[in-house]
Amino acid sequence: MVTLILWVHVAFGFIALAAAGLALGSAKGGGLHRRAGMAYVGAMCAVSATALALVALRPNAFLLAVAVFSFFLVFTGWRAGSLRDGRPRAADHAMGALMVPAGLAMLGAGAAGLASAGAGGAQPVILLVFGAIGLTMALADWRDWRAGPVAGKDRIARHLTRMLAGTIATITAAVTVNLAFLPELVAWLGPTALLTPVIFWWNARILRGRAA
After folding, report:
1. How large is the average pLDDT for residues 76-86?
2. 3-state SS string over the chain?
3. Is the distance from CB of 206 to CB of 157 less than 8 angstroms?
4. Could you give the percent of the chain with pLDDT greater than 90?
5. What angle do CA 159, 161, 163 make, to 5 degrees?
6. How far apart are CA 58 and CA 77, in angstroms?
7. Which pTM does this prediction carry?
8. What pLDDT score was predicted for residue 211?
9. How many CB atoms lie within 10 A of CB 192?
10. 179 exposed, middle or buried (CB, 10 Å; 0-12, 13-18, 19+)?
11. pLDDT tens digit string along 136-188?
12. Cα(207)–Cα(54) distance, rounded to whole angstroms?
């Protein structure tokens, strides 16, 4: 059973990666972009569901935290693109209510791992980085919603940020599985370090009105 679920998980991961590439390479707002984006969201939902199934069969708190973090990115990115009025619904608040305690737990586990005598591996650092990103984004959502609807260029920038961040998570999964010769910390955080500047650059273009 575990092997079957793992193969389904990997297959949907590759589908998500292909759909993400198609969405990024197509005209933003066009039909192909929307269809590819929805295919990506659907595939990532399947990836998250199979990850939870694997964790249920073989408990692993680290993989559970990464699955929650990845799903949060994709879900909030999709919602930012879908909610044209910029007003959150109950599902959006529920997602934040899931990510905040998960982010705090990731930060706590990461700090405890670093503080433990003889603790090895890169997992504590990974938990600290991903936990900080997820927690910051969830709290930023509530802060911005209190100020009013997130609409216009701000909405597009949020959609872009979260979907690209979700794509980074997908690439990270592919790297950790297929490039096992890389150091663990490089495999897990390398895509984030390399591609996060692209998010900032693209956001700057959108917010200055130079991109559709």
Report:
1. 94
2. CHHHHHHHHHHHHHHHHHHHHHHHHCCCCCHHHHHHHHHHHHHHHHHHHHHHHHHHHCCCHHHHHHHHHHHHHHHHHHHHHHCCCCCCCHHHHHHHHHHHHHHHHHHHHHHHHHHCCCCCCCHHHHHHHHHHHHHHHHHHHHHHHHHCCCCHHHHHHHHHHHHHHHHHHHHHHHHHHHCCCCCHHHHHHHHHHHHHHHHHHHHHHHHCCCCC
3. yes
4. 77
5. 65
6. 29
7. 0.91
8. 45
9. 18
10. exposed
11. 999 999 999 999 999 999 999 999 999 999 999 889 988 988 888 899 999 99
12. 40
pLDDT tens-digit map of 13-63: 999 999 999 998 888 888 999 999 999 999 999 999 999 999 999 999 898
Cα 49–chain centre separation: 14
What type of residue sits at position 64? L
Give the number of other CB atoms < 10 A from CB of residue 43.
22
Asked whether the beta carbons of 92 and 69 are under 8 A apart, the reply is: no
The tokens describing 55, both together, are 């964790």
Confidence (pLDDT) at 129: 95
The answer to whether 188 and 126 have CB atoms below 8 angstroms apart is yes
Round to whole Å and give the CA distance between 158 and 161: 5
Mean of per-residue pLDDT scores for the chain = 91
Contact 100, 135 (CB under 8 A): yes
